[in-house]
Amino acid sequence: YNHFPRHLKWENNNVTFRIVNYTPDLKKADVDKAIRRALNVWADVTPLTFKKLYEGNADIMISFGSKEHGDYNPFDGPGGLLAHAYPPGQGIGGDTHFDEDEQWTKDSSAYNLFIVAAHELGHALGMSHSTDPGALMYPIYTYTTGYPLAEDDIEGIQALYGPNPNPKKVKPRPDAPKKCDPELTFDAVTELRGETIIFKDRYYWRIHPQMVEPELTLIKSTWPSIPNKVDAAYENPEKDLVIIFSGIRMWALNGYNLVDGYPKYIHKLGLPKSVRKIDAAVHIKDTGKTLLFTDEDYWSYDETTETMDSGYPRSIEDDFPGIEDEVDAAAYHYGYLYFFHEHLQYEYSYNSKKVFRIQRANSILNC
Amino acid sequence: AQSSAKPLSSEDIDKQLLAEKYLRRFYGLPSGLQGSRTSSNFLQAKIKEMQKFFKLEVTGNLDDNTLAVMKEPRCGVPDIGE
Fold first, then answer.
1. Digit-coded pLDDT (tens) for A261-311
2. Which of A81, A116, A144, A260 has its CA 20 to 30 A from that of A300?
3. Residue A18: CA atoms inside 13 Å, Cβ hemisphere, count?
4. Which distant-in-sequence residues (6+ apart) come within 8 Å of A102 by Cβ?
5. Chain A environment of B79 (Cβ under 8 Å)
């Protein structure tokens, strides 16, 4: 998180606000509700209270305007700049402006007023932008559902005002994973047209051969309809598809695009109903088989006949000596299987059936 | 002497203008005329600052990923506190 210079904040915890005008995109009551909910997001985790004024000058003056709207800080028509706000202070300090040229909504069909208002009111209270892509104070708009604050946001606002003396029960979003944390574990690993995608919590890293630095992105900002938690993923290069598993459902990607007709149930692959989650999946290009790991067992799916091979499940420990425990994620490169479990990755030779090397899981991230 | 320099394509000019406008608004790139050398140094330094903020690969160049982030809908408050 970041604050404004000199950690600008309101000296009085009882802050006033006024909604000066309204957007025609929403009913007046919906705008009122969105602004009140956005203020409550911050009130729940600080001693701050917000009193609504209907006339005169309030600490936070909220308005909708387009292009040049009176503060020599013009908006830019649809898209681009959505809103802005000023840090705490006299006069324009705390004032919050929304670009009327945007379409404001209560859902995800356009720009969600509640989400943008919660972000801007963070500025009006003294928060600057965060570099954590999962934080509410990250500068780029992302539609999210559920509790909007990340731990990073709460830490930042409480560094200014302290905690709420009567804390509400909130469930902050975990912060972005640190790629070189020695204890880092992965949820899933897959290839995608020459790139490597690594899923962790609500995020995924994208490793491109020509990029030195892996890129961390929110899953939902690329695939809004895929859950925040991916269990397993694999690429079938022959079909140019990446299959992503979460719980008992699976999605298919063609490139970065979701394939129509998904999600489907994993049991369509021939898994018994008793299987409720796939831990790891990997496609063995040389055999055309996809291995699906669940708990201590694994299954073999024939991509050509699109049927599960008979004689499965088999024990991971029996067939992959050296891999004693469950598998978090798996990948296959040039005859080597890479099993990821907790903070380690095991390089397993598929031909000579033995573990050749054990490294930290995040060595794949150049750590 | 033969010169391999060639004029920027209009697409490159658009990208340059987009980047300058973005960096002026959010990263304090100085506006107004400067010497060509200082302005390209400034521009590259500000591109690096923006790439670092968004955890992109810090190259100082206007690569596709950097431009893609510059085109995302976002908040109008600058990213650097000053």
1. 999 999 999 999 999 999 999 999 989 999 999 999 999 999 999 999 999
2. A260
3. 11
4. A78, A79, A82, A83, A110, A111
5. 128-129, 139
Which of the residues A55, A100, A102, A120 is marked catalytic?
Answer: A120
A120 flagged as catalytic: yes
Q: Residue B81 has which token pair?
A: 């506190």
User: Vertex A160, ends A156 and A164: CA angle to 5°?
Assistant: 85
Continuous segment of H or E residues that includes residue A257? strand A257-258
Contact B57 A131 (CB under 8 A): no
Which of B 52-81 lie inside 8 A of A, CB atoms?
Answer: 53-58, 65, 69, 72-79, 81
Contact A111, A103 (CB under 8 A): yes
B81–A3 CB contact, under 8 Å = yes
**3-state secondary structure (DSSP) of residue A123:** helix
Q: Which of B74, B79, B80 to mutate to test the interface with A (most CBs of A within 10 A)?
A: B74
CA distance A103 to A111: 6
Nearest CA in chain B to A137: B75
pLDDT averaged over consecutive 10-residue blocks of chain A (367 residues)?
Answer: 94 97 97 97 96 97 97 94 97 97 94 98 97 94 90 96 90 88 96 95 90 86 90 95 96 94 94 95 94 96 95 94 91 92 93 92 92
Within 10 angstroms of residue A27's Cβ, the number of other Cβ atoms is: 11
Chain B residues closer than 8 Å to A128 by CB: 77, 79, 81
Contact indicator for B63, B51 with CB cutoff of 8 Å: no
| A320-350 confidence digits (pLDDT tens) | 999 987 899 999 988 899 999 999 999 999 8
- Distance, in Å, from the CA atom of A329 to the CA atom of A233, rounded to the nearest integer, reads 8
